[in-house]
Design brief:
Elements (H helix, E strand, L loop, with lengths): L11 H11 L2 H17 L4 H7 L1 H16 L10 H17 L4 H16 L1 H19 L3 E3 L1 H4 L6 E4 L7 E8 L9 H19 L5 E8 L7 H17 L3 E2 L3 E8 L13 H10 L7 E6 L3 E9 L5 H15 L7 E7 L4 H8 L7 H10 L7 E14 L5 E11 L2 H6 L1 H7 L2
Parallel strand pairs: 3-9, 4-8, 9-10
Antiparallel strand pairs: 1-2, 2-3, 4-6, 5-6, 7-8, 10-11
Helix pairs in contact: 1-5, 2-4, 4-5, 6-7, 9-10, 12-14
């Protein structure tokens, strides 16, 4: 199967019409309505939910732009979310029209389900992204799961010129293996911000407050409100607190000589500050008044995150259960929160290998990877406007071959992964 790799704006009306003929518009509009309702109830969740459900929200924006300005206005109003959603629509229509009716209905069902489930949506988008990359590299692609011929994602061939390659695509969410999820942290931080509001205005010092759970954060609202009360007590009394489920530790910081002195700091500044206080954590909130006082609140677990181990459990399972071993297997991985520049850092040689590089090397030297030829990591780049008004999105692939000699002896692998 060949796929479209270039798309012109004048084709959009037909694409939208064919997409709507397969996809239940009421379904994704229901998702949008529920997202708006949740955001209204908790503004702390706004950016998180907007990012999580960016595809149905982008579909709504595309529908509204077309309704108000016509299809020709899409280009002028397009952001990253609208771009990737139009790409998704093009890819879906391109594939579904090449399938028989039963297989097409199966793919449409998967798309409808993915519009309700963000993790499934990212997985589907990544699978289609890898398929498009392969077509650009002169491969023909088939989807064995749709055909009922296998449980891996893509079979790539080059018209009989080289042996086929099997591809399994894994999209990894940011919360995988973490004991404090992003949503839990935002919900608790929203309660803490309300509970501490009147204290923050009169604060004239810098405080670092670490809430360390024995395991995971409390789930119900009563326990969360009790946690907020204990946090207030710690700030007012200036003393640590401990109970069976968590501890709250308080320390002071030199506000004048900290990154918070001016009220303006970058994410990188905050990361370095946290590391200086022994905190390696993304679930952090900073409250304060510019030039007066600040409280840095970190929500953590006593148990170390198992992100990498869970990632490689997923990879090992794919190698064992989904790749057949009949053809060279390629496992492609994309992380929810890894951008192109961060992936470049992973690929750079250092005196000490990164944790990801070390884990990849261990996996590829183990018996669990005997049918894996390449383990590849993907990250998206920024949108780029081309001469003539076209738009494209680059990215980066960093691959770990099981054996470099495979590349020397396999033209298909070289074509798929090497520049």
């Amino acid at each position: 199967m060949q796929l479209t790799t270039d798309f012109r704006a004048e084709y959009l009306p037909g694409i939208v019409a064919r997409f709507d003929s397969w996809i239940d518009r009421a379904e994704w509009m229901r998702v949008v309505k529920n997202v708006r309702k949740e955001i209204k109830g908790n503004s702390f969740l706004e950016s998180y939910l907007a990012e999580l459900h960016r595809t149905p929200l982008a579909l709504e924006k595309i529908k509204n732009i077309i309704s108000r300005f016509g299809h020709g206005a899409i280009h002028a109003h397009m952001s990253g979310a609208e771009y990737e959603t139009i790409v998704l629509m093009v890819q879906f229509v391109d594939v579904v029209q090449r399938l028989d009716n039963k297989k097409a209905r199966s793919l449409a069902g998967r798309m409808n389900g993915a519009l309700r489930n963000p993790a499934d949506m990212r997985a589907l988008q990544f699978e289609l992204q890898v398929a498009t990359h392969l077509v650009k590299r002169d491969f023909e692609v088939e989807f064995p799961e749709t055909d009922g011929k296998g449980i891996f994602d893509i079979l790539a061939t080059r018209g009989g010129r080289t042996a086929p390659l099997e591809f399994e695509c894994k999209f990894i969410t940011a919360d995988k293996g973490r004991y404090v999820s992003q949503r839990e942290a935002l919900e608790i931080n929203s309660l803490l911000e309300k509970a501490l509001k009147k204290y923050i205005g009169g604060l004239r010092v810098g405080l670092v407050l670490r809430v360390i759970f024995k395991d995971r954060p409390p789930k119900n609202i009563v326990d969360r409100l009790e946690l907020c009360s204990h946090v207030k007590e710690v700030i007012v009394l200036g003393a640590d607190y401990q109970c069976a489920d968590y501890s709250i530790r308080l320390s002071q910081l030199d506000l004048k000589n900290s990154i918070f002195s001016s009220g303006e700091f970058s994410e990188e500044d905050l990361t370095l500050f946290l590391k200086g206080h022994g905190i390696v954590n993304k679930q952090v909130m900073v409250l304060g008044v510019k030039g007066k006082g600040v409280v840095v609140i970190s929500l953590e677990s006593e148990k170390p995150n198992k992100f990498l181990s869970r990632v490689f459990e997923t990879i090992s399972d794919a190698a064992k259960r989904q790749l057949t071993g009949t053809h060279p297997g390629c496992i492609c991985v994309k992380f929810d929160d890894l951008n192109e520049s961060q992936l470049v850092e992973i690929g750079l040689e250092r005196d000490t290998p990164t944790a990801l590089r070390a884990a990849a090397s261990r996996f590829l030297s183990s018996s669990a990877s005997s049918n894996v030829a390449v383990l590849a990591f993907y990250a998206d780049g920024e949108l780029t406007t081309l001469q003539g008004g076209g738009i494209t999105r680059g990215g980066r692939t960093y691959h770990f071959p099981r054996d470099l000699r495979m590349f020397e002896n396999n033209d298909a692998l070289k074509r798929a992964f090497q520049d």
